[in-house]
Amino acid sequence: MTGVERRWTGLVLSSFSGSAAGFTVAEGPLAEGKVDYVSAAACFAGAASEKARLGFRVAVLLAWTAPLWMGRRFGMMGSLDAEERSAVLDAMSRHRFFFVRELCLLLKLIACMAIFRSPAARVRSGFDRPEPEAKRALSVIGGEEAA
Amino acid sequence: MRRVTDEADFVIVGTGAGGATAARVLSEAGFELALVEEGAYLSPEDRPRELIDAMARSFRGMATLATDSTVPMPLLQGRCVGGSTAINSGIIWRMPEDVRDDWRARFGLDALVGDRLDRAFARIEEELSIGPTDPSIAGEHNLLMQRAAERLGLPGRVIRRNAPGCKGSQRCLQGCPNAARQSMEVSYVPRALGHGARLHTNAKVERVIFEGNRAVGVRAGGLEIRARRGVIVAASAIWTPLLLRKSGVRHPQLGERFQAHPGAAMVGAFDEPVHMGFGASQGYEVPMRDRGFKLESLGLPPDMLAARLPGAGREWQERVARLGHYVQWGGLVRMEAKGRVRRGLFDGVSVRFEPTARDLAVLKDALLLTARMMFAAGAHEIYPGIVGLPEIVRSEEELAPLERMTLRRKDVHLVASHLFGTACAARDPKAGVVDEHLAVRGARGLYVMDASVFPTNLGVNPQHSIMGVVHAAAEALAERESARAAA
């Protein structure tokens, strides 16, 4: 990625969580952890299909220029504050064009993969069961035809 | 470039459910084997919990290979030793009887789906310790689905898996850290290696080498492996037809009849904690075979779950902070659509596949039932991810628009796993790229042993059917070759 792409990628991906800074989720429940969005994006781009790599670049460009083409403001993503950037991404995720929604979903997934690379974010999300907790049994119902 | 050579009785291309099972059968029958795998061998230590790092190593193209369409559909495949068995949830279903009857009647495949197949299933089930999900590692996301099925009187069942020592670490997708799931890289591949087979990894086979019409080996970059008795291609329903075509095999049905079980999922939010990070990734299912779909609990990593939560910014962060309160369930559809696989501009492949209107109607039925099950289990809101519905649905009444609408392809995000066809088996030479012994027509010593040979999709998870069919065919091949050697 070029320097410009890194800057755009970092700002766009961090905007899903409403971050004020490029690489840090600086407020809200995911605070405290450092999230390296650019390195996650580079990891994705290094392993993704050619089509997806192209799609990712288009997605970042679309998101960066979204304030302009969505008619919200004469400016780019970099000129908005954190709350406004999040609002733009939210609007993209509900856009009437399938490809805009899908590209936004791709960006959101990469942002999530960057966030959950951090063990601290995972702990704060409550996704895992706190230990210890009594296990509950799944009753096995009869007539399993595959046996 | 210096060419490295190897020689064996059989060369097997691919180490997924098909290739590894062929290796298990042929190596134990005493044949010398060389296995060639495009991906790497990943030990449990090589498979991190973090999704992005795990997918970069074990998934083909980070799961971003997709159909060619204005509404592309991602195609999930493993790319490592073990193939897709190394990234799936180990769900085991025998091939349904109606599918076997159909294959006999329409494709003349009596030999392929006869008694030998039942014996193969029984043997595989014993060897891979297949059984119902252990109650102690059920996990709330599975228990809630069971609760919903019971309340609605649906024919749910505990999923049978090949994971006898599962600890409920919920990392099937990234790779089992305990090697509990008996995917091919921890079961049949090591077993074949124990019988003397050799494994070449990180080697993408570029073509099958022929002398006349006889397949005598394969070439993979600087590696050339000669085959004394035959070449077995088991590179998946996408890559097998491309390799055959590139190697000069011609048949009107090669690359045609591509089929799949595409699916969509939705998220439900519960007041009580679910903690999807614990439990069998997929432990409960509701097969609705008569209606053309199957619902499954989907214990996916937190990244995938969080990406499905609506919103952005503070609102989204607040939802993510309650990630322990969600379930994700999805529906797989046995679609009637047939596509095709060809060489393409991007990634060397072009997959065309478009669901029919009937397929989308079945999908709508599946999604409606999934939503109703979530409410029956006690969800206070669900995130359906369907255009035309509110982003957040809080009651069954709010599902009414979905009931009324004609679901369009672009209204929902679909993902396709379970890929079939493209080198169809049939007794009729015009219909089948391979015959009932899975031998490629027009070539000698060349076989296809993966889901490419399936003339139809199944409506159930295919791993066991692939293994069973290949087990039976490889056993018959071993008998023929042994008899030939003795003569």
Question: What characterizes the major β-sheet of chain B?
Answer: 7 strands, mixed
Percent strand of chain A:
under 5%
Please summarize the sheet with the most strands of chain A: none
E-strand count of chain B: 18
Q: Which chains make the largest contact? A: A-B, 63 and 72 residues
Q: What's the mean pLDDT score of chain B?
A: 95
Topology-level CATH name of the largest domain in chain B: FAD/NAD(P)-binding domain
Name given to the CATH homologous superfamily of the largest domain in chain B? FAD/NAD(P)-binding domain
Q: Based on CA inertia axes, which overall geometry of chain A fits?
A: globular
The overall pLDDT average of chain A reads 82
Unreliable residue stretches of chain A: 20-29, 143-147
- Radius of gyration of chain A, Cα only, in angstroms? 19 Å
Strand-and-helix sequence of chain A, N→C? HHHHHH
Helix segment tally of chain A: 6
What attributes does this structure have?
heterodimer, A: 147 residues, mainly alpha, 6 helices, globular, B: 487 residues, alpha+beta, FAD/NAD(P)-binding domain, Cholesterol Oxidase, domain 2, 2 domains, 7-stranded mixed β-sheet, 7-stranded antiparallel β-sheet, 28% helix
How would you summarize this macromolecular structure in one to three sentences?
The complex is a heterodimer of chains A (147) and B (487). Chain A is an all-alpha fold and 147 residues long. In chain A, 54% of the residues lie in helices and 0% in strands.
